[in-house]
Specification:
Blueprint lengths: L2 H25 L6 H12 L7 H13 L4 E5 L5 H9 L5 E6 L2 H13 L7 E5 L2 H4 L8 E6 L6 H11 E10 L15 H15 L3 E6 L5 E6 L1
Parallel strand pairs: 1-2, 1-4, 2-3, 4-5
Antiparallel strand pairs: 5-7, 6-7
Helix pairs in contact: 2-5, 3-4
The structure holds S-adenosylmethionine.
Keywords: Methyltransferase, S-adenosyl-L-methionine, Transferase
Pfam family, one: Methyltransf_3
GO molecular function: O-methyltransferase activity; S-adenosylmethionine-dependent methyltransferase activity
Amino acid sequence: MQSRPRQRQGQERVITGNRQTSWAFADAYVAEDDALHWARERAREAGLRSVTPGTGAALGLLAATVDAKAVAEIGTGCGVSGIHLLHGMRPDGVLTTVDPEPEHQQFARQAFRAAGFASNRARFIPGRALDVLPRLADAGYDLVFCDGDRLEYLDYLDESLRLLRPGGLVAFEGVFGAGRTVGSGPQPTEVLRLRELLRAVRESQELVPSLLPVGDGLLCAVKR
Ligand SMILES: C[S@@+](CC[C@H](N)C(=O)[O-])C[C@H]1O[C@@H](n2cnc3c(N)ncnc32)[C@H](O)[C@@H]1O
């Protein structure tokens, strides 16, 4: 009996030692095609973050799980996350994607075409999320993916609750804040806002939450 705790400790050490390798394996588990590599490269040149392959795979999975016909995306970037979402959506589904930078959306448009999606599968809306989202239909969306201005995530949460149908899903990219969300010491406003978001989602009676440790942290919640 006395040897049990020692054995458990040993197992924990093995898991800890391999954890980074396991996470790297999980992140690269679903391969990306040429269109995604092209979009990723355009984003890198423009100095933009894109979701990691693992986060992209999770987004595709989530879109398929809710059988998404209508998805709203905040922060088109050069289209990496959009391609993953479109892959998971129904074949007749439409991605509505919002970004204030027309040149980002132009790259995304090309990337979607290269990935084989017909032009009517995506609706590009140029503009800032908080100007555009109020114009979108109540309960008209199966999934909302938030990857725009992290200072505005709490406002995106309010808008998402209005936009989602019951059973729909909201996802926020990057909530680990590159490790700063759980870091001690003074943190920038962006990190403080991420912490507020994490609290608000966890405490909401309207949401069933889960924080997926993919990429830089993908906070997900289903609207009851
Ligand atoms: C990290 S990139 C998005 C990357 C993209 N989701 C992907 O993984 O391919 C963030 C994008 O949000 C856009 N953005 C910044 N502020 C925004 C706002 N207020 N509303 C909507 N988009 C915004 C930026 O122009 C940029 O293209």
